[in-house]
């Protein structure tokens, strides 16, 4: 099953593949906005496996698959036989067995889970493409949507600077991979003890990111300022400690002023206003978070099309 193409982390695709995806996202979004039907995936089935909660990822994949003419099936670990964290739930079917069965009844699988190793094991036993819908390590679909949103507002991201303020989490790791693939820079500022670990971020180089002790300096002059919750899903036991440790890592209006008037603000959502970002920033003029959320759907439709049909050119898809 080695020949199946999966999307497990950002660096699985090349810059040329992203250029194609962004172009297709633009075209697919245009069709949606014009109420034109585009059903290239009729009779195709997406299975979505959620071991963590979701609003955007579930909705954008399910609505997107339906808009492409296909159907989507939702499974969660509460009422399926799949529990990748066997220690918590005794009765779990193995990931390998689940992959064999699920991939014989579907055309593509999206998984949101804890360890990245789980989706790698699933993919190794899957006959169909597997998409990472968030793991502890990465959130590649989010960053495809974020970069598409940046391009819509500001043009190509090559050579630009993204400031990441806060936790060196799955979303941060994915920005760091994206910077290497697409050739832009990331300025990261985390509290002491939460620094980026290049190995965990899956980096093959460190030329595209720079660490800053002071979040204000990381944001200064950045084309995009972005952040995320202080405590990610699965780490709730650290909540109180993190609230204390991250108190000075809030994106506020002063930080956006340091970035400059042309700088955009993004957040993958859900947000905790008053913690990682001041309400006046996320609800202010520089914020593009609603476009960013909507673009999850358009970019994932392009991803589904690419994984199932290969490179579709605009002229062939009319
Ligand atoms: N940004 C994101 O993935 O949101 P959900 O957790 O709601 O899917
Ligand atoms: N870093 C967050 C992202 C949620 C979309 C988490 O993993 O919980």
TrEMBL record:
It holds the Pfam family OTCace. It is an enzyme of class 2 (transferase). Its EC number is 2.1.3.3. Residues 158-306 form the Aspartate/ornithine carbamoyltransferase Asp/Orn-binding domain. Keywords: Cytoplasm, Transferase. It catalyses: carbamoyl phosphate + L-ornithine = L-citrulline + phosphate + H(+). It is found in: Cytoplasm. Pathway: Amino-acid biosynthesis; L-arginine biosynthesis; L-arginine from L-ornithine and carbamoyl phosphate: step 1/3. GO terms for molecular function: amino acid binding; ornithine carbamoyltransferase activity. L-ornithine binds at residues 170, 228, 232-233. GO terms for biological process: citrulline biosynthetic process; L-arginine biosynthetic process via ornithine. The keyword Amino-acid biosynthesis does not apply. SUPFAM superfamilies: Aspartate/ornithine carbamoyltransferase. Residues 5-152 form the Aspartate/ornithine carbamoyltransferase carbamoyl-P binding domain. The keyword Zinc does not apply. One of its GO terms (cellular component) is cytoplasm. Carbamoyl phosphate binds at residues 54-57, 88, 112, 139-142, 268-269, 296. PROSITE patterns: CARBAMOYLTRANSFERASE (PS00097). Belongs to the aspartate/ornithine carbamoyltransferase superfamily. OTCase family. Reversibly catalyzes the transfer of the carbamoyl group from carbamoyl phosphate (CP) to the N(epsilon) atom of ornithine (ORN) to produce L-citrulline. This is Ornithine carbamoyltransferase. The lineage of its organism: Bacteria, Pseudomonadati, Pseudomonadota, Betaproteobacteria, Candidatus Accumulibacter. The gene is argF.
């Amino acid at each position: 099953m080695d020949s199946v193409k999966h999307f497990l982390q950002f660096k699985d695709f090349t810059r040329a593949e992203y250029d194609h995806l962004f172009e297709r996202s633009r075209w697919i979004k245009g069709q949606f906005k014009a109420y034109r039907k585009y059903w290239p995936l009729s009779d195709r089935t997406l299975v979505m496996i959620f071991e963590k909660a979701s609003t955007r990822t579930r909705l954008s994949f399910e609505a997107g698959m339906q808009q492409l003419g296909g159907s989507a099936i939702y499974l969660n670990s509460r009422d399926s036989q799949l529990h990748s964290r066997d220690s918590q739930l005794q009765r779990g079917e193995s990931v390998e067995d689940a992959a064999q069965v699920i991939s014989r009844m579907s055309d593509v699988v999206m998984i949101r889970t804890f360890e990245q190793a789980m989706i790698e094991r699933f993919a190794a036993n899957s006959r169909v493409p597997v998409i990472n819908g968030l793991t502890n390590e990465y959130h590649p679909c989010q960053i495809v949507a974020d970069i598409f949103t940046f391009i819509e507002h500001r043009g190509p991201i090559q050579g630009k600077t993204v400031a990441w303020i806060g936790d060196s989490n799955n979303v941060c790791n994915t920005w760091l991979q994206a910077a290497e693939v697409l050739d832009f820079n990331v300025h990261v500022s985390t509290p002491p003890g939460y620094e980026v670990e290049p190995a965990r971020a899956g980096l093959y180089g460190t030329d595209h990111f720079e660490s800053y002790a002071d979040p204000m300096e990381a944001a200064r002059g950045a084309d995009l300022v972005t952040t995320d919750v202080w405590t990610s899903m699965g780490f709730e036991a650290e909540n109180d400690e993190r609230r204390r440790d991250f108190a000075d890592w809030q994106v506020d209006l002063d930080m956006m002023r340091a970035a400059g008037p042309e700088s955009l603000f993004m957040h993958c959502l859900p947000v905790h206003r008053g913690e990682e970002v001041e309400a006046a920033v996320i609800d202010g003029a520089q914020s593009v978070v609603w476009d960013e959320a909507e673009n999850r759907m358009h970019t994932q439709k392009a991803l589904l099309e690419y994984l199932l049909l290969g490179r579709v050119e605009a002229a062939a898809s009319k």
